[in-house]
Amino acid sequence: MKIAVTIALLALPLAACNQNTELGNDREGQIDAAPTPAPIMGAAAALENVATAALKPETMSDADIAALGGREGRCAVKLTEVGFPSFLYEPTGSGAIKLNGKLIVLRNAGDARFEDGGLTVTLQPVDDEGNAGLQAMEMIIVPPGAKDEIGYRGYSQCFQGDEA
């Protein structure tokens, strides 16, 4: 009985681990200052002198999303169903991705393909859905000068209003 009580007491601090609404695992929204948005730059400038193999899509904060004009009328590619967007786009307009700590706006090149300065992002729906019902999506990134593409599987969510 003592062991069960000890285990329960040790597990108690973990009970709210999924309650953090801030980016990262080590932030408390009511204590840490709100993040400032990443700078918005063209792909060539944002990725200058960066090894293409080191590029990975980053999670956008609420400040980043606001700097891009908000969620309303846009869709997001999220790497997890409950995560923040890694790619934010208008279905018939431009898209934006966060790489190297910078927001990069890409023009719509048709067929769910977005590009700027040699950077290409292509979206491909997957015949699958997540546990929360979101459509699975592949995001294929080809950095400028890269020999290979980099693929990520996540989920797509479109926003009618500016809800999260």
Summarize the structure.
With 164 residues, the protein is mainly β.
Keywords for this structure?
164 residues; mainly beta; eight-stranded antiparallel barrel; globular
Beta-strand segment tally: 9
Question: Are there runs of 5+ residues with pLDDT below 50, and where?
Answer: none
Cα end-to-end separation: 44 Å
Helix share bin: 10-25%
Total count of helical runs of at least 4 residues: 3
Structural class: mainly beta
Largest sheet: 8 strands, antiparallel, barrel
Strand content: 25-35%
Shape: globular
Strand/helix succession: HEHHEEEEEEEE
The side-by-side strand order for the widest beta sheet comes to 2-3-4-5-6-7-8-9
Mean pLDDT: 86
What Rg do the Cα atoms give?
Answer: 18 Å
Structural description of this entry:
- With 164 residues, the chain is mostly beta strands.
- Helix content is 12%, strand content 35%.
- It has helices spanning 2-11, 43-46, 62-67, and strands at residues 40-41, 75-78, 85-89, 95-99, 102-110, 113-116, 119-129, 135-142, 150-158.
- The chain has an eight-stranded antiparallel β-barrel.
- The chain is globular and about 65 Å long.
